[in-house]
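Narrative summary of target 7.
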Amino acid sequence: MRVLITGASGMLGHDLQRAFGDREVTALGRAELDVTDAAAVRDAVAGHDVVVNAAAYTKVDDAEAHEAEAYAINATGPANLAEAALEHGAKLVTVSTDYVFDGFATEPYAEDRPRDPINAYGRTKAAGEELALTAHPDGTYVVRTAWLYGEHGPNFAATMLRIAAQRENWTVVDDQVGQPTWTLDLATRIREMLDADAPAGIYHGTNSGRTSWFGFARAVLEEAGLDPERIQPTTSAEFVRPAPRPAFSVLGHDAWQAAGLQPMRDWRAALAASGIATAS
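Modeled conformation, tokenized:
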């Protein structure tokens, strides 16, 4: 398996390189490959069996004022990769997001739930899914994920530990619910999906279970041996941002069962295994 990883310099990109470490891997960051450049993408995909696209415009709030720029990376990019993958006989795995949904549900979102984003970032990611699946329907895997944290980039868990070193008490929102997901678990699952020759389509690559940002923050402190009572709950109304956030981002995992794979492990077990919550 000859694997091309795009967005390889990011948090997930680093762990994808680790997950595919025993394969022939080409790892290209933004400086090496602009996914909005169709000609460059065609050249890069040539000679590979699988493309894993971790390139993304992830500045959710900035996307409200720069939707065209976000669209180029999040929608045109996957479309270019899908067309190139089809041309060269490769599979494409493109990483998407829970933000393609509105967040108004009360039960986990199924893989086939209609997309209904509530912000610009979500709209561009939803478009990327649609364009990639249309361009290469028999060889495109959309893997939606959420609330990522990992060793190789800024993330919520690291932010909580930094704040803990600076303040005695602080607040975190308790009215947004989702699934904290370790990037290495996600990268490993993408590898497992391909090794199992799972059918193309949409999958939800999140750790199991659910919690709020407040619950996640307290768990980080507990894993670090710090007092979780230092964090108190608050509401999203106290943290108004340019882009609205989905209140409920729990994703269902039925597609894994259909492909013969178990859902990813519980988020709390993954947090403990990650070792990221280590007190400095």
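The mean pLDDT is 97.
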